[in-house]
Amino acid sequence: MIWKEIEIPTSARVQLKDVTALVVNELQKSKVNNGICYVYVPHTTAGVTINENADPDVVTDLINNLERLVPVKGNYRHAEGNSDAHLKASIVCFSQAIPVIDGRLALGTWQGIYFCEFDGPRRRKLLIGF
Amino acid sequence: MIWKEIEIPTSARVQLKDVTALVVNELQKSKVNNGICYVYVPHTTAGVTINENADPDVVTDLINNLERLVPVKGNYRHAEGNSDAHLKASIVCFSQAIPVIDGRLALGTWQGIYFCEFDGPRRRKLLIGF
Amino acid sequence: MIWKEIEIPTSARVQLKDVTALVVNELQKSKVNNGICYVYVPHTTAGVTINENADPDVVTDLINNLERLVPVKGNYRHAEGNSDAHLKASIVCFSQAIPVIDGRLALGTWQGIYFCEFDGPRRRKLLIGF
Questions:
Q1: Which end of chain B, N or C, is less surrounded by CB atoms within 10 Å?
Q2: What residue in A sits closest to C97 (Cα-Cα)?
Q3: Torsion on CA atoms C106, B111, B117, A96, rounded to nearest 10
Q4: Nearest by CB: B44 against A51, A69, A93
Q5: Is A29 exposed, middle or buried, given 0-12, 13-18 or 19+ CB atoms closer than 10 A?
Q6: Is A58 within 8 Å of B44 when comparing Cβ atoms?
Q7: By the 8 A CB rule, do B86 and B45 touch?
Q8: What is the per-residue pLDDT across B63-78, written as a single tens digit (0 to 9) for each?
Q9: Model-level pTM?
Q10: What is the ipTM of this complex?
Q11: What is the CATH number of domain B3-129?
Q12: pLDDT tens for residues A82-120?
C-alpha cells in the first residue's frame, strides 16, 4: 500500500475545497485498477467529505448550515476560539474511502471530494492511499 | 478486490432501510473469510449508517432528530429544495467499513446497516466491496 | 488481515476516552509496516472519532456541544431513554481508518483516537484491524 501526502492551501476560515482532480491524479499515477482509494486528513480542525460537484450553492448551504448548528461563537471552554471547528471536523469525519473500479474512482455522477477547512486559512495536508 | 453494485429502491422522502441481509448475502457469495466489508453510496443526498436493528422506534427517532437539526425548509440557496438532504448525507457519511471475521460480518449484537434515503423516493445504488 | 478485540470500560454516561496508546500497542504487535489501521465499535450507542489530544477543554467542548445539538431529554419514542446516544454515535461514526506508514500510525501532531461512550458507564468492545 502506498501513501502520498499533498499540500492543500486554504484561503478562508471555512472552505470546502474540491480536491477530486488531485485525488484522480494520484490514482492515475498509482496504476491501481481495483481496490479502494483512501483520503485522510491529519488535522483536528479540518476534515473531508463527499458532496455535490455541480451547483456551488450546495457547498454554500453546507457551510452555512454547519455554522448554524455549531456556531463559531458559543459557550466554549477551549481558549483558542476554534471549538466549533473541532466538532465540525468530527461531524464530517477525517477520512473517506472511495471504490476504485477498472482504474477509475467510482464516484457517483454528482459526487466530488471536498477538503473541509474549518479554521483557516492555513497550509494543510491530505494523505491519499491506495 | 471485488465490488458489487446493487439497486436500492426507496419509498419515502426520508427512509432508513435495513440492508444488512443484502450485504450478508454478498459476503457469502464472495467467500471472503477475514478482512473488511465496505458499503459505499454513490449519491449526494443519501448515505449509509449503522444503528439498532431491534426497536424500530430508534430509527424513527433518528429520522425525526436529524429533521429537527437540519429541517427540509430553511434559509437555503440551492434551488432544488434538498439542501437538507445534502447535509444529512455528509453527517451520516457515504461509506461504512465493517470487519469480516471467520466469514461473518462482525456487527455487534444490535447493529444493522441502514441505507439512508434523504431525498426519495428514488432508485438508488449501493456498492459493496470485499 | 488480523482483527483484535479489546475491552474498553467506560466510567460516565458520556465520555470521550483516549485509546490511542491501545491502538499503537496493537500496531506494534502486528508488525504491519505500511497499510491502514481500522478501529471499529460494535455498539449502537457508542462510536469512535479522532480529535485533539492536547487541551482537555476540546473534549469537554465536544461533549457539551453534542449534548446541545442532541439533548438526552427530548421528544423521543424509544423507551430506553438513550435515543440521543444512538444519533450521537451515527454522527461521529462507528469506525475510523488511519494510515500506517513505516510502522507508525500517521496521526497528525495533535490527533488522538477517542472511543466515544454516549450511554455508559458500560464495558464496551473495540475491534482493531490491520
A1: N
A2: A95
A3: 10
A4: A51
A5: exposed
A6: yes
A7: yes
A8: 999 999 999 999 999 9
A9: 0.98
A10: 0.97
A11: 2.60.120.460
A12: 999 999 999 999 999 999 999 999 999 999 999 999 999
